[in-house]
Amino acid sequence: MHIVILTGAGISAESGLATFRAADGLWSGHSIDDVATLKGYRKNPQHVLDFYNDRRRDVAAAEPNAAHYAIAKLQGSSHKVTLITQNVDDLHERAGSKVLHMHGSLATAICESCGHRQPATDHMSTTDHCMECGELAVRPDIVWFGEEPHYMLDIDHELRRCDLFLSIGTSGNVYPAAGFVRVAGKKARTIEFNVDRSEISSKFDVRVVGAASKTVPEWVDSFIVNPNV
Length: 229
Ligand code: OAD
Hints:
Layout (H helix, E strand, L loop, with lengths): L1 E6 L2 H4 L12 H4 L2 H4 L2 H6 L1 H16 L5 H10 L4 E6 L5 H4 L5 E2 L2 E8 L5 E3 L18 E5 L9 H10 L2 E5 L11 H5 L4 E6 L11 E4 L2 H14 L4
Parallel strand pairs: 1-2, 1-7, 2-3, 7-8, 8-9
Antiparallel strand pairs: 4-5, 4-6
Helix pairs in contact: 6-10
Bound molecules: 2'-O-acetyl adenosine-5-diphosphoribose.
The site of 2'-O-acetyl adenosine-5-diphosphoribose (OAD) has 26 residues, from helix 1 and strand 8.
């Protein structure tokens, strides 16, 4: 079976990483305009770099949880599994998955001058040079609001052809990811995994309510035994 999986911050919540829109989430303590837009970066680059330096430190202290491992197990099965994440952490990779980071990655930095990608340092600063062209133009490799997410052509291709679409731990507030269920759902069966209702819950054929570290491994184990359930 051809499966497309979309993950969001909720899958990493039980690894101890903050989500964005919970009452105590990242967007309650930080302004999106200040830390997640190019305009905010131009206004105060070090403030934005420090925000992502803090996220990088949190991720370094976190470990993948049972939901990340269950997805890696599914990818290692006989099914074709395309994993897309909105998350900028590396917990899927550390669990053994191959993953498309549509919103970028904390692990890399990108040069605004020549486009070169290089490993992000723990303490990115405005004095960082591009290792390729030498310019002082290195920014976090994060897709900010107003910027085009990565891999959209490939993702659209997969969504239109898959048989099954899973969405795990995302609130459905941010497009284009929030629209994936509509594209995939023209052909595929769609299942949402979330502790709560999301903005797009009504678009799914099936909802699995509960913490991802429990619901996802249970679902994967039963799906591997019987893909027709
Ligand atoms: P949100 O913080 O908007 O939503 C997290 C979702 O995870 C919510 O629907 C929660 O109910 C759910 N959740 C929390 N804990 C869970 C658990 N243990 N098991 C299952 N579900 C759980 O995060 P995202 O939807 O990922 O983009 O946010 C999308 C994008 O908005 C992010 O990639 C980021 C942000 O702005 C950029 O910064 C560009």
